[in-house]
Input
Amino acid sequence: MITHRGGCHCGRVRFEVDAPAELTIDDCNCSMCTRTAYLHLIVSADRFRITQGRETLSLYTFNTGTAKHYFCSVCGTKPFYVPRSHPDGWSVNARCIDEGTVTGMKINRIDGRNWERQYPQGRGDFVA
Output
């Protein structure tokens, strides 16, 4: 495990996440992820820290309200959120990790459009 750092486009929101140098990423085809080109690095809560800009974040929820989508209220970037699949963890947008620490990415395709059919009992496993 190493510490990756990242943030939003304008730099007001910053985070740290502990994960391997080579990341296992989920690429979901649900309506939210496809519109934002989000690549999920899903980790347990103890491996994620907001280090700057918590007061700059805006929250968006929809449907069941389980997922907590956090956006920078200045630039609109969504660098991380609490996913419905892992409500006790975090999903970091791998596209928001700073350059220099990621050595590679293994990408898993996730059928989020058919979430309930694909994961009738929920998902719950942490990827990284």
In short: The two ends are 10 Å apart (CA to CA).
